[in-house]
Amino acid sequence: MSKIAFLDIDGTIRAFDGTVPESAVNAIQKARANGHQVCISSGRPVEEIEKRIIDIGFDGIISASGSYVIYGGKCIRHVYFPQELYLDIAETMLKNDCVIEMQCHDKSCIVESQTEDFLKLGEELQALLGNSAAKLAQIPGVVSKAGDMEQVEKILYFSDTFSNDDVKRLWEDLLYVVPLSFPNPRKFGGELSMATANKAEGIKSILEVSGHCVQDVVAVGDSENDVEMIRLAALGIAMGNATDGAKAAADAVTDTLENDGLYKAFEMAGML
């Protein structure tokens, strides 16, 4: 029976130092050769997914944690902040000294007035993560004010004073909030998107057009923003290097990425 697998990128296909194990590439390509479909399911916006990852070969892409979904070569789902809500969030965070990055499917930007703050944050990330933080530390696009961005799908924020509780108090019913998927040098931080934007909802949008059902779904991930898709899947697998939350949600735990964890996950799923 044909299955459809959904894979996180960082910590599942790609190590945080940038390494992509050959066994991971082999697993994906062999599964597709065996008649299964394999899709990316990432918190990254599309424009931040490396070409070398896409070139491995995939049948679809869930990006920005379910906000922007591509299947069959076209966008089938696009969820973004209403402009009024986006401006409320961005301006509130800027007033409270948060460093923020606004992400759309085709670009990511910071506000010009935060350039020095972002450079300092980049230095802190590199001190914490070494060379693996090189991409994170790069300044994305720059806009003169938050209102210059439209159809924003996700906001990343970093702060020493504006807490996750503050975020929930102000916008809890409207937002999907998860911890950052990489170590945070600041006291608080997270990834914000619309409440209807998560990887499980992205998977459902693909199932509506792919001919598969939930019983065909295999999901493999390693972080908190993978929990919903791991729970949705008929077989949800956490990487050996996954967070405790991802492991608790999973039906099974495979080995770490470096120890051929993705290949072993596909073996568990009967896709190889």
TrEMBL record:
It comes from the Bacteria. This is Cof-type HAD-IIB family hydrolase. GO terms for cellular component: cytosol. Pfam families: Hydrolase_3 (PF08282). GO terms for molecular function: magnesium ion binding; phosphatase activity.
